[in-house]
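USER:
Try writing one entry.

ASSISTANT:
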Amino acid sequence: MDESGVADPVGEESGERDQLRRITRAHQRLHAATEQVSSAFATLQGLHQIDLEALLAVMNAEQAGSPLTPGQLGAAVRLSSAATTGLIDRLERAGHLERRRDDTDRRRVHLHYADASMRVAEQFFGPLGRISSELLARYTPEERELITGYLDAAADGMAAHAHALQEHGDD
């Protein structure tokens, strides 16, 4: 494995190796830039990193059509029940999220991204959506499918690796 983290299998041509290194470096640069944008947003909103992780988890679950319960949020951000309650209380007081009772089971509570907070996020992150749209317009639909496939596989691989690291840390 070289300094960029690219495996160096025997017999692989140097051109392919160089291409894999360039892809890995580009991926690392994208990740670092994403972290910088997230950090800037968190700072401007007076949020801690865990707050931002929680809000993203709530927003993503809600957009997928299955809002999180407090317990599911705690599992997603790896916090105890008590710490999750404190986190939710803090984010609710700040107007970032809301607790809503389930329509079919009033005992169950779901977490939702607050409308006002969503507008702030859209104003901040909206330009990134436009940048992405402009960049993706350069590619054919087939190429965009390849890009989507790579990004989905990379995200799945990262999530699996994170899970393995967490499992190892629990030993």
